[in-house]
Specification:
- With 287 residues, the protein is α/β, with parallel strands linked by helices.
- It has one domain: Spore Coat Polysaccharide Biosynthesis Protein SpsA, Chain A (Alpha-Beta Complex), CATH 3.90.550.
- The chain is built from 12 helices and 12 strands.
- Strands 1, 4, 5, 6, 7, 8, 9, 10, 11 and 12 form a 10-stranded mixed β-sheet that branches. Strands 2-3 form a two-stranded antiparallel ribbon.
- Helix 6 packs across helix 10.
Length: 287
């Protein structure tokens, strides 16, 4: 019994050393351009028009979405965080520094250069820039996720406990409670056994219809830094969006390294903050 407790303590120690990278440098263009529903306050309308999505408040506690993500990370065993921000994020940074003290965690900031453009170059570029800013990430495993999806502590823990492979959560689309129209905004996954075989970013309806059971990515992964770095560095620019997306870097990695990305299928709802109407939905979920 004593040996079993020691093994659990060692596992928890290792898990606590694995950091979470949260991507929060986007410009939230779909949120800003979306219509205003009747049920949200003028304060939240103003926030949705000027703040990044992870900094928009929700729920009875009126905390930003990123607060609830971090709380679920802590419940899963994460203590160290890297948060990718844009240069003009001073108010957000002040909030996060207070949160660091309040929750007894460590937060390091990374900053995504937009290269003089109005929008960032994509998620793969965000992680690539962060890894160049914090070289220690090249030699360790880390988890990465969006700042506008409320991932469960269960999903995060699944990724923490897998230490042999890169890994990701494959969400059963039928459990996500989104409309069929929203499916085209995700990456659809082709899974063979326990491993990812292909990932298609924002598929068209013809591709979607060819899948009888639909599993999608919601951008939560665990990567081995030494393996993913070169694929992030050499990630091609998407012709559709003009950005470097994680899905493209990941596809190139699994093309070169078969069975390098293990998949954990999950059937659960993940509240998503894309449009103004989603703010009320997430608040109701939290309440």
């Amino acid at each position: 019994m004593h040996l079993l407790l020691e093994k659990v303590e060692v596992q928890l120690f290792i898990m606590n050393k694995i950091p979470m990278i949260i991507m929060a440098a986007g410009v939230s263009s779909r949120m800003k351009d979306s219509s205003v529903p009747k049920e949200i306050s003028q304060n939240l309308v103003n926030q949705s028009n000027v703040r990044v999505k992870g900094f928009i408040q929700a729920g009875e506690g009126n905390e930003p979405i990123i607060f609830y993500i971090i709380k679920n990370c802590i419940s899963a065993g994460v203590k160290n965080f890297y948060i990718i921000l844009s240069d003009n994020s001073y108010e957000f940074q002040k909030y996060l520094k207070k949160l660091e003290i309040k929750l007894s965690i460590q937060i390091k900031f990374g900053f995504q250069d937009f290269y003089g453009k109005l929008k960032p170059m994509g998620t793969a570029d965000a992680i690539y820039q962060l890894m160049n800013q914090y070289k220690e990430l090249m030699d360790k495993r880390f988890i990465v996720c969006n700042s506008d999806n409320l991932y469960s502590s269960h999903a995060i823990k699944l990724l923490l406990e897998e230490d042999n492979y890169n890994s990701m959560i494959a969400y059963n689309f039928d459990c996500l409670k989104f409309s069929e129209k929203r499916l085209a905004s995700f990456s659809i996954l082709k899974i063979k056994g326990k491993f990812l075989e292909s990932i298609i970013e924002k598929p068209d309806m013809e591709i979607i219809k060819s899948y009888s059971k639909k599993f999608v990515s919601m951008n939560i992964f665990s990567f081995k830094g030494e393996m993913i770095y070169e694929y992030l560095k050499d990630c091609p620019i998407s012709q559709k969006r003009g950005e470097k997306e994680i899905a493209s870097a990941l596809q190139n990695m699994i093309d070169d390294n078969e069975k390098s990305m293990i998949v954990f299928p999950l059937c659960e709802h993940v509240p998503d903050l894309t449009f103004k109407e989603d703010i009320d939905k997430i608040s109701k979920f939290l309440n």
